[in-house]
C-alpha cells in the first residue's frame, strides 16, 4: 500500500516594525518689501524687484512611493544635505533640513549648475532603494541637479524617502513523496523553494524566519502521524539576490519535539539583513510502520521575526 503526504496551505505571519515620521510645517517664501522715499510718485518711474536665487532641500516621507510630495506627506528634519559644483569636486554648502522649507542654500551664482546631494547622519549616501525621487542619473537617486539663472528664484530639491519594509514569500502548496508502508518506518521528504526575504528598511535590519509544523492528519480525520521526533528541518542553499552575504545564514538541521517547537530557516544578523535573499528548505517526515495508506495533510507556518 502507498500513502501520499500533502501539507496544506502554508501560512505566513509578518511582524513589522512601526514607522515614525515628523510633523510637517509649510513656510511661505520671504516677502519682498519695496519702500518709496520720494514724496512724488511719478507715473514713468520703473521699479524692479528681485532677490537672490536659492535651493531649498526637502526630505519627506513618500508614503505611496510615487516620487511626488503629496499633501499630508510628512517632512523629515536634521538630514544632512550638500550643495556641490557640477563636477562634485567642491562642497559649497552643507545644511541640515528642518521640517519646512527654511534650510536653503544661498547665495548662489547666476548661470551656474549645482548638484544637491543627500546624506545620512553619518555623512554617507542614503541606500538607493529608499530614495523614491529620480536623481540626475538613474544610478544616483541621492543626487539632483539644478541650473541657476536670474529668474529661477527658489527651487525646492525634494527627496522622497521610503522607510522601506520587509516581506516574506513562500510557496503555497507542497507535496511530500509517497511511501509504501510496511513493518519498518519510512522517510519521505521534499524541498520547499524558494523561501524569500526582502528587506528594504533603514536602520536596524536584523531578522529571522522560523517555522512550526502541525501533525499530519488523514483526510478522513481518523488517523494521525505525529511529528514529534519525526519531522526534520534541513535549511539548504542560500541565494543572494541583492545585498551582502555577511550576517546571512541558514538554520541548523533540527528535529522538532512537537507542534510548538520552532526551527530556524534563515536569518540576517549583525545589522546586515538589508537586501533580498532566497533559501531552499528541506523537510523530512518519518512515517511509522503500519501507518494506514491514506492521504494526509498538515500545515507548516513560517514566521518572519524582526
Characterization of the model:
The chain has two domains: 157 residues, Immunoglobulin-like; 108 residues, Immunoglobulin-like, CATH 2.60.40.10. It is an all-beta fold. A five-stranded mixed β-sheet has the order 11-1-21-14-15, with no helix packed on it. Strands 2-22-13-19-17 form a five-stranded mixed β-sheet, with no helix packed on it. Strands 10-12-20-16-18 form a five-stranded antiparallel β-sheet, with no helix packed on it. The chain is 0% helix and 43% strand. It is rod-shaped, with a radius of gyration of 30 Å. The protein has no helices and 22 strands.
List the defining traits of the structure above.
single chain; 306 residues; mainly beta; Immunoglobulin-like; 2 domains; 5-stranded mixed β-sheet; 22 strands; rod-shaped; disordered N terminus
CATH topology of the largest domain: Immunoglobulin-like
Kindly provide the radius of gyration, computed on alpha-carbon positions and rounded to a whole number of angstroms.
30 Å
Looking at the overall shape, the CATH architecture of the largest domain is Sandwich
CATH class of the largest domain: Mainly Beta
Amino acid at each position: 500500500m502507498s500513502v501520499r503526504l500533502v501539507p496544506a496551505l502554508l501560512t505566513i505571519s509578518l511582524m513589522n516594525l512601526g514607522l515614525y515620521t515628523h510633523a510637517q510645517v509649510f513656510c511661505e517664501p520671504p516677502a519682498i518689501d519695496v519702500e518709496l522715499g520720494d514724496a512724488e510718485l511719478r507715473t514713468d518711474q520703473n521699479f524692479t524687484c528681485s532677490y537672490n536665487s536659492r535651493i531649498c532641500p526637502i526630505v519627506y516621507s513618500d508614503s505611496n512611493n510615487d516620487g511626488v510630495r503629496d499633501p499630508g506627506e510628512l517632512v523629515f528634519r536634521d538630514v544632512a544635505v550638500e550643495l556641490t559644483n557640477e563636477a562634485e569636486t567642491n562642497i559649497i554648502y552643507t545644511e541640515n533640513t528642518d521640517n519646512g522649507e527654511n534650510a536653503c542654500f544661498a547665495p548662489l551664482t547666476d548661470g551656474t549648475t549645482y548638484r544637491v546631494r543627500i546624506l545620512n547622519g553619518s555623512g554617507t549616501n542614503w541606500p538607493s532603494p529608499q530614495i523614491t525621487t529620480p536623481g540626475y542619473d538613474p544610478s544616483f537617486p541621492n543626487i539632483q541637479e539644478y541650473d541657476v539663472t536670474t529668474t529661477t528664484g527658489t527651487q525646492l530639491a525634494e527627496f522622497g524617502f521610503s522607510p522601506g519594509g520587509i516581506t516574506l514569500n513562500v510557496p503555497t502548496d507542497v507535496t511530500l513523496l509517497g511511501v509504501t508502508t510496511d513493518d519498518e518506518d519510512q522517510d519521505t521528504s521534499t524541498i520547499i523553494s524558494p523561501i524569500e526575504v526582502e528587506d528594504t528598511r533603514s536602520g536596524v535590519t536584523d531578522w529571522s524566519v522560523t517555522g512550526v509544523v502541525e501533525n499530519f492528519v488523514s483526510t478522513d480525520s481518523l488517523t494521525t502521524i505525529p511529528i514529534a521526533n519525526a519531522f526534520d528541518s534541513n535549511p539548504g542553499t542560500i541565494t543572494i539576490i541583492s545585498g551582502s552575504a555577511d550576517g546571512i545564514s541558514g538554520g541548523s538541521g533540527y528535529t522538532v519535539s512537537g507542534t510548538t517547537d520552532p526551527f530556524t530557516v534563515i536569518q540576517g544578523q549583525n545589522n546586515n539583513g538589508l537586501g533580498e535573499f532566497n533559501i531552499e528548505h528541506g523537510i523530512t517526515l518519518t512515517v511509522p510502520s503500519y501507518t494506514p495508506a491514506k492521504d494526509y495533510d498538515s500545515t507548516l507556518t513560517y514566521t518572519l521575526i524582526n
